[in-house]
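ARCHIVE CARD
Drawer: 12
Card no.: 0347
Subject: one protein chain, sequence and derived structure
Cross-reference: see card 0346
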Amino acid sequence: MKKLDLYIFKKFIGTFFFAISMLILIVIIFDVSENIDSFIKHDAPWQKVVVDYYVMSIPYFINLFIYLFTFIAVVFFTSKMAAHTEVIAILSSGVSFRRFLVPYLMAAVVLAVMSFYFGNFLIPKTNEIRRKFKDEYMEKLAHSAGRNVHVQVAKDEFVYVETYNYVKEVGYRFSWEEYDGSELKTKILADILTRDTASVNGWRIDPYSVRHIDGDQELMVMGRHLDTVIRLQASDLYKMKEDFEEMDFFELRRHIGEMKNKGSDGVKAYQVEMHQRMASPAAVLILTLIGAALSSRKVRGGIGMHLGIGIAIAFSYILFMQVSKSFAISGELSPFLAAWIPNLIFCALGIYLLKKAPK
């Protein structure tokens, strides 16, 4: 049985990497044809185009399509085995269908672990290089958060900036308020807020006025320049498009905690991303079982019939995932359920197909 396990394992892994390599090559060709004008317009060095953008995009593309091509690979080579009556021969020799699935699960676990590592640790690092190139030569990822930006920087501390220029790192019409419960204790007002890059959370405000309130007593201090430290990040005052792409699992969790403490908007998009990074490896296992159960029976139409049904199931999974994600971001569904509902639905489908699979 060890030879059979190795045979199925090699078929699975080989078919997967061959299929996804062909897809990545096609995606890169189409991407080059779409973005070549932008590369030429911004004088992007071709070494950076190849290494910083396309080579660094390979782990992203692999992880993006991993569960889809895992499923297609399983359906493709298992339906070929069924068409050549190999599956019937294996089961007729006394091997149970559960035992037959062992090499499938071994290969699926390898791909699931790879997906987990790619999504949570490798891709955030390659994305730092890829996104830096994209921001410099293709499109600006940072954009203004608009006017009248309100940020809660701590439990009882609030910052307001009328406008913020993220290129010059300068804000206008700044105020900072500190409360003790519902009572205002300190308020700082300034016309200009400038980022001090020499220190962490360092800012310069000018001209400024500081108002201290202690019961019925008030103290007002005014001046031209003041260097101070505020628990405020420059990134709190502008928006970076999909910045969670550069965060590994632990950085993402920490960022979500900070956003919750500050009462920031848009935290659900980060929560959905975190839960999807956990759900995607599980999807590899579930779709492997569905693919093996679906394509192990010899049917009229052969490989074409199996591939047609398999692709329909795979795209149904993607549709479920996108719909649940949209509901979560809009606030109608919890991020955890949004990430795991497609897996739960298709897990039930997998159990049904396993019961109907040839024994």
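Annotation on reverse: The two ends are 17 Å apart (CA to CA). The first strand starts at residue 142 and ends at 144.
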